[in-house]
Design a protein that fits this description.
This protein is mainly alpha-helical and 80 residues long. It has 2 domains: 1-30; 32-80, no CATH class. It is built from 4 helices and no strands.
């Protein structure tokens, strides 16, 4: 993507990557779940089962660090 200079620290590179991804979401007009009409109460009621299903799927095993159920729930709340 070229968002960070090759000499940038990991922290700076990650911050620049996040900025680029947020800009791309804006450019592509990717809506948030609440903008799609997802009911907040229903969403909250299924967060833990969704996080547990994500862990059970094995997908998080491809990350350098295995997230906890609580961390995944936190990520889901951020995207709402």
């Amino acid at each position: 993507m070229g968002a960070a200079d090759p000499t940038s620290s990991d922290a700076v590179a990650v911050e620049k990557l996040l900025e680029e991804l947020e800009a791309l979401n804006r450019e592509l007009e990717v809506p948030r779940l609440r903008e799609l009409g997802v009911d907040h109460e229903h969403f909250e009621s299924i967060l833990v089962p969704m996080a547990e299903a994500a862990l059970a799927s094995g997908s998080p095993d491809f990350n350098p660090r295995q997230p906890s159920t609580e961390e995944i729930v936190g990520l889901y709340r951020e995207i709402y």
